[in-house]
Amino acid sequence: MPIPLYRDEALVLRTYKLGEADRIIVLLTRAHGQVRAVAKGVRRTTSRFGARLEPFTMVDVQLHRGRSLDVVTQVETITPFARTIAADYSAFTCASTMVETAERLTEDDPDLDTADTPQQFLLLYGALHALARRRHAPGLVLDSYLLRALALAGWAPSCFDCARCGAPGPHLSFHVQAGGAVCGTCRPAGSVDVDPATMLLLGALLSGDWTVADSSAPRARAQASSLVSAYLTWHLERRLRSLALVERS
């Protein structure tokens, strides 16, 4: 029989209004995957922890298991990423796309991330931390996060060898449905011609090579962002609402 009370570290992905004073909080936890919980009375000015349950915030939360929705009983702020991210429009829209992606990738299987495999939680935490600390350009952080989150979900694109036949790269064509880079023999209709610098950047973003990513040219970044957006949309089977608001240089 499950224990009615449990505690975990979590990142707040989204909130929804419920009734006159409550909110539904969507959390990505370290050990329990995606959790949807009711925070009662948080919209009242007298709420003890309403401000702690804002998107992009990392919290230590205690929840009570419910039939359909859990209930937040205690919450403490660990890292308030929202304070610095919300002050910059570019960082805010990139963070919004990240949390929307995390919500989509973990909603079908709420136990996707467990105590043994919390990769999606750790990846999102690292990306929000990089945005909040301005470690890299927001667009680069976003594209790196999207590629790596998709890879964790089993949809890693090929950025060097041919995605169809495995012929050694680099190749200069990219086909979203085929899975990434394609050679001249396998190149299907609808493939996109890609600059060598763009393909190099895609590989760097996927592997986390920030020396290469930070030194990339604006043209390569723009083309890479377009490919990443198309690849994400294809696998999620819909375009994210927040992605349309992201500023691309």
UniProtKB/TrEMBL annotation:
One of its GO terms (biological process) is double-strand break repair. Residues 5-81 form the DNA replication/recombination mediator RecO N-terminal domain. InterPro entries: ARFGAP/RecO, DNA_rep/recomb_RecO_N, NA-bd_OB-fold, RecO, RecO_C. One of its GO terms (cellular component) is bacterial nucleoid. Keywords: DNA damage, DNA recombination, DNA repair. Involved in DNA repair and RecF pathway recombination. Belongs to the RecO family. This is DNA repair protein RecO. The gene is recO.
